[in-house]
Write a structure and sequence with these properties.
- The protein has seven helices and nine strands, in the order αββααβββββββαααα.
- It has 210 residues and is an alpha+beta fold.
- The protein has one domain (2-205): START domain (Alpha-D-Glucose-1,6-Bisphosphate, Chain A, domain 4), CATH 3.30.530.
- Strands 1, 2, 3, 4, 5, 6, 7, 8 and 9 form a nine-stranded antiparallel sheet that branches.
- InterPro entries: ASHA1/2-like_C (IPR013538), START-like_dom_sf (IPR023393).
- Belongs to the AHA1 family.
- This is Activator of Hsp90 ATPase homologue 1/2-like C-terminal domain-containing protein.
């Protein structure tokens, strides 16, 4: 729960090649050197330990694919400060390029730590957004960044098949969905719609959460 509280979440507006977009934004600090965090974000040997196994041409302009179905192209890469990729899911998504992008920015902190910022932009027509709101992607990123924090802190590797069976992680999901609901409210969305989105998101990620 400390890791959940360590992040600041916001929902905003942006633009993509395919049109106007909404953004989910996460900012936090990691107690690790910027080069270590960059390596965890870009090294295939470490990516699979907190995110998913990755294959492809992992250089600027190359295409990548995670074993969960997420895939895209590396649009910007400026070590160790900036990584930007297109972020599509499923083979049918290739028919709509420019609809989803993820950007990560790193900056050295004052005590050898790292300021971390992730911005995921998706077009307003994205089909999950009306039902789930920013939690559709936000809860997934919270879970991934929790695993990244564990890797950076003590080298622990996430068990993606077992993680949702843990009562602690189900509670983490419930609170993450609620936190994204607060960001949704702060963006000016009606409270009834936000409450429905939080409930739908919680049931999607943790069907048996209290």
């Amino acid at each position: 729960m400390d890791e959940l509280a360590a992040a600041h979440r916001a929902m905003g507006k942006g633009s993509l090649p395919a049109g106007d977009a909404y953004t989910i934004e996460v900012r936090r600090r990691y107690a690790a050197h910027v080069d270590d965090v960059w390596d965890a974000l870009t090294s295939p040997e470490r990516l699979h330990r907190w995110l998913r196994p990755v294959t492809g041409d992992l250089r600027l302009g190359g295409k990548f694919e995670l074993d969960g179905g997420e895939h895209g192209e590396i649009l910007q890469c400026e070590p160790p400060r900036l990584l930007k990729v297109s972020w599509l899911y499923g083979p049918e998504a290739d028919a709509w390029p420019g609809t989803s992008e993820v950007e990560v920015r790193l900056a050295p902190g004052p005590t050898g730590d790292t300021e971390f910022e992730l911005i995921h932009a998706a077009v307003l027509e994205e089909p999950l957004f009306p039902t789930y709101g920013p939690g559709a992607g936000g809860v997934g990123w919270d879970l991934a960044l929790l695993a990244l924090a564990r890797l950076l802190a003590d080298g622990k590797t996430a068990n993606h098949d077992e993680v949702h069976k843990s009562p602690e992680v189900r509670e983490f999901i419930r609170r993450s969905a609620a936190a994204w609901g607060e960001a949704h409210l702060a963006a000016g969305v009606e409270p009834d719609h936000v409450a429905a989105a939080v409930e739908a998101t919680t049931k999607f990620y943790a069907p048996d959460a209290p």
